[in-house]
Amino acid sequence: MIRMKRNILLHPDPRLKKAAKPVSDLSDELRQLADDMLETMYDAPGIGLAAPQVGLSDRLIVLDCRKEEGETPRPLVMFNPRVLSSSDETNVYEEGCLSIPDQFADVTRPAEVDVEWIDRDGTLRRETFDKLWATCVQHEIDHLDGRLFIDHLKPLRRQMITRKMVKLKRELARE
Ligand SMILES: [Zn+2]
Q1: Distance from the CA of 99 to the center of ligand 1, in angstroms?
Q2: How far is the CA of 98 from the centre of ligand 1 (A)?
Q3: How far apart are CA 153 and CA 151, in angstroms?
Q4: Which of 130, 118, 143 is nearest to 52 (CA)?
Q5: Residue 88: closest CA among 68, 113, 119
Q6: What residue ranges define each of the domains in the chain, with the CATH number in brackets?
Q7: How many CA atoms lie within 13 A of 161 on its CB side?
Q8: What family name appears in the similarity comment (predicted)?
Q9: Does pLDDT of 1 surpass 70?
Q10: 47 near 67, Cβ under 8 Å?
Q11: Residue 97 known to bind ligand
Q12: Which residue in 71, 94, 140, 175 is the catalytic one?
C-alpha cells in the first residue's frame, strides 16, 4: 500500500477545536488514512498524530513513542480509543505538538492509563500505558475531543503561545 503524507493543520484552526466522530466501520479509506498518518508522523518527526490534525473528524490516532535510534518501531493505530481508567499518580512531561511547532511546555497528566481501542485489523484491544506512552496517548485522545496540550496550561501561557502561532501562520501565508 502506498503511503502519502498529509498536511498538518496548525493552531489556531477551528477544525482542531471540534470533537471528532466515532468510527463505525473500518473501511479501506480509513486504513489508508491511518497509514498516511503514520507516514506523516514519522516524517515530521513526531510520536503521535490525531485525525483532526490532518483535517478529518474521525476518532483515529496513531502513535509510536519508540523514538531512540536502534529501537524497533512500534506503530500503534487506534480507532475509537478511550481511557477506561487512569492512575491518581501523575507525571510531568514537556509536551509539544505537530500542530503547534517549536512550542513546548510541562503538562501534568495521570502517570498510567488503561486504554481500549480498535486496531487496524478491527480487533478490540486493551492495554495499560505508562511513562511517555501514557502522556502521548492522552495527548492524542485529547485531540479527538478538540483539546490541545496548551489547554492544560494557565491562560496567560496559552495566550502567549497562541499569539506566536498566529504570527507564524501569517508569516507562512506570506511565503
Ligand atoms: Zn498534538
Answers
A1: 6
A2: 6
A3: 5
A4: 143
A5: 113
A6: 14-174 (3.90.45.10)
A7: 24
A8: Belongs to the polypeptide deformylase family.
A9: no
A10: yes
A11: yes
A12: 140
What is the distance in A from the centroid of ligand 1 to the CA of 29?
A: 23
Largest interatomic CA distance in the chain: 47
Q: How far is the CA of 103 from the centre of ligand 1 (A)?
A: 11
**DSSP-H helix ranges across the chain:** 28-43, 131-144, 155-174
Cα distances (angstroms) measured from residue 83 to each of 113, 141, 158: 6, 8, 25
Distance between CA 112 and CA 128 in Å, rounded? 7
In single-letter form, the type of residue at position 112 comes to E
- pLDDT tens digits for range 103-147: 999 999 999 999 999 999 999 999 999 999 999 999 999 999 999
Q: Is 139 labelled a binding residue?
A: yes
In the block, cell 487512569 appears at 86
